[in-house]
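Subject: Protein record for review, amino acid sequence with backbone structure tokens
Why sent: The fold of this protein is of interest and is recorded here as tokens.
Enclosed: The protein record, placed directly beneath this head.
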Amino acid sequence: VVVDRAEKGVREDAEDLAGLLLTPVRRTTLGSPAMVERRRRVLREARKMIGEAPLDELNIRDLCERANISTRTFYNAFVSKENIVALAIRDYFEAFHRSMPFVRSAM
């Protein structure tokens, strides 16, 4: 089977994205209430920014300013831009999924 380079590149990108979505990210499960609130604030602002502009325009400095945190705090908590995007999308999807009536009635 011959796979051209473009197809192979697309497949590798898809595998990288799937791995990113499935890879655990440092979560603040234990920590002060201030840390938990800070993390929620960053995720909330990230979701807003994702809705306002294309992903390639998402800027970590702008996100940190809007969430009122330092870039160092951001990278300590979320590691990378890709991780915050994946977490923001996942959190949004989980909230959406919980709100679906058929999900509640099936439990």
